[in-house]
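FAQ
Q: What does a multi-component entry look like?
A: The components come first, one per line:
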Amino acid sequence: MALKQISSNKCFGGLQKVFEHDSVELNCKMKFAVYLPPKAETGKCPALYWLSGLTCTEQNFISKSGYHQSASEHGLVVIAPDTSPRGCNIKGEDESWDFGTGAGFYVDATEDPWKTNYRMYSYVTEELPQLINANFPVDPQRMSIFGHSMGGHGALICALKNPGKYKSVSAFAPICNPVLCPWGKKAFSGYLGTDQSKWKAYDATHLVKSYPGSQLDILIDQGKDDQFLLDGQLLPDNFIAACTEKKIPVVFRLQEGYDHSYYFIATFITDHIRHHAKYLNA
Amino acid sequence: MALKQISSNKCFGGLQKVFEHDSVELNCKMKFAVYLPPKAETGKCPALYWLSGLTCTEQNFISKSGYHQSASEHGLVVIAPDTSPRGCNIKGEDESWDFGTGAGFYVDATEDPWKTNYRMYSYVTEELPQLINANFPVDPQRMSIFGHSMGGHGALICALKNPGKYKSVSAFAPICNPVLCPWGKKAFSGYLGTDQSKWKAYDATHLVKSYPGSQLDILIDQGKDDQFLLDGQLLPDNFIAACTEKKIPVVFRLQEGYDHSYYFIATFITDHIRHHAKYLNA
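Then the predicted structure of the entire assembly, as tokens:
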């Protein structure tokens, strides 16, 4: 599992690095970013995974979210993968901004031609953690996950499909009920085919209804002026209703005047990192 | 002086906006970013001008520096212009990344074909402040300036050439002695011609030697692993020697392991905004 370092920049006393590797799950080269806080120089740290939204690479979060100060203070290694395989020469992979490249939706595709490469679910939950645990000073037992929009969807389903794997989960403007929203219908029909039962296995609102697991403290921030909320792409109300019914605690904060941008994320990122640090450093 | 709003995003309770206008000085359309902190809703705030470095637009600083939290807390309106005129159809304007587009060097060009458009000094010190004072809730008497690299050079010369105009000045990795460094020689010979006395009028190290002005508290952060420092583009030692001789107080902090990137700026931006707030809110 050879890693090639692409960049390394000092930031808030730690190091923001980007690496490239040949992904076995995705059958292509993948980049990921990893932040090593000062504490990582002298011991193992918890690992916090960030999943980005549509059209993003590993760069958007590390350059725009302003997360480094709190990650440095709380001593968290923060990992941010790319949002899909790239350069797979699949016909149509670059045709839309909400499907294919930059839009892997954190699922394992079952349909041709996507199934050979589009396995972001297994990449994020299996291959990447194994790579991180093997190459960086992280404690494999202390892992949490969060994300934005499509990445918020990814964080929620990874946590709900793996009870106990993550200490905590949070999301910014997550796609909460993809089986019912335009983005989700387009992605799931393309990657998973027409059998909607396969869709539900990657839908947070459905997963909550049958969540058998342990305590899961979910934090969600949502901008009230988020165009995609108004367009019915995110559907947080459905998710909250399902959590309420199942008595799963979720803190949902509707933020007046905020939108879907990284300005919204930057404003509340410290709260989210504090949320995770509470569990990761417990 | 019609302003066209390009974008507006809520961030740390304030609004990060970008506007476009027809610049009289530069004879072209120019964009600038302005952050209005929550305090700007109820009263006039001080104005802090940021000047960016080579290849930047108004976007780099507002999306990568993480300045919003401290600007919001200290109640400062922060303005970030672009780094040169654009789209002027001057032969060669886009040929190099360190001259022409994205590289206006904050001077008023005297040479053809640049002198018609390349008047960034007057734009930054006259036209933009007049525009800001006329259109935003700012106190014209309370203004400070800071910048990075070429923008650090810009901030230093604007302050040194206008004693009393700015309450404070600071810089990240500034080009301190452009008449002696490759970037400066290329830019000044192109914009100002071969008469080196004209160059010195835009060189911070020379300007300090004849600075008649009032108290000026200068803060400079410089990454010790900054490739451009090692390449002799920045020359801070010359500037510090000149300040020492003239007994002008300058705090110069050499930061171990840091480079020229926005990760370096993000790490110390709060210190700089606090530095300015001390004088602007005095």
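Q: Is there any commentary attached?
A: Sometimes. For this entry: Chain A has a mean pLDDT of 97.
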